[in-house]
Amino acid sequence: MSELLQLLTPEGQRLHHPDYDVDISGEELRGLYRDMVLVRRLDTEAHALQRQGELGLWPPLLGQEAAQIGAGRALRPDDYAFPTYREHGVAWTRGVDPVSLLALFRGVTNGGYDPTDHGFALPTIVIGDQTLHAVGYAMGVQRDAGLDSPPGSGVISFFGDGASSQGDVNEAFVWAAVNNAPVVFFCQNNQWAISQPLSRQTRIPLYRRAEGFGCPGLRVDGNDVLAVLAITRAALDRARRGDGPSLIEAYTYRMGAHTTSDDPTRYRVETELEQWRLKDPIERVRAYLLRTGAGDRAFMDEVDQQADDMAARLRQACRDLPDPAPDAMFAHVYAEPQDLVQQEQRWWREYLGADHG
Amino acid sequence: MQTFRMPDVGEGLTEAEIVRWFVEPGEQVDVNQIVCEIETAKALVELPCPFEGTVAQLHATTGEIVPVGGDLISVETADEPPAREPVLVGYGTSNEKPVRRRRRPTTPQGTQSPEAGPPGAETKPVRHGGYEVARSTEERLTTEQPRPRTKPPVRKLAKELGIDLAAVDPTGPGAVITRADVERAAAQRQSAPTGSEQIIPVRGVMRSMAKAMVDSAFSAPHVTEWLDVEVGESLRLLDRLRERHPDHKWSPTVLAAHALVTAAVKHPRVNATFDAEAEVILVHPAVHLGLAVATERGLLVPRVANVNTMSLVQLAGAIGTTTEAARAGTLPPADLTGSTISLTNVGVFGVDGGTPILPPGQVAILCLGRVVERPWVVNGQIAVRPVVTLTLSFDHRCVDGQLGSQVLSEVAQFLHDPAVGMAG
Question: Fewer Cβ atoms within 10 A, N terminus or C terminus of chain A?
Answer without folding.
Answer: C
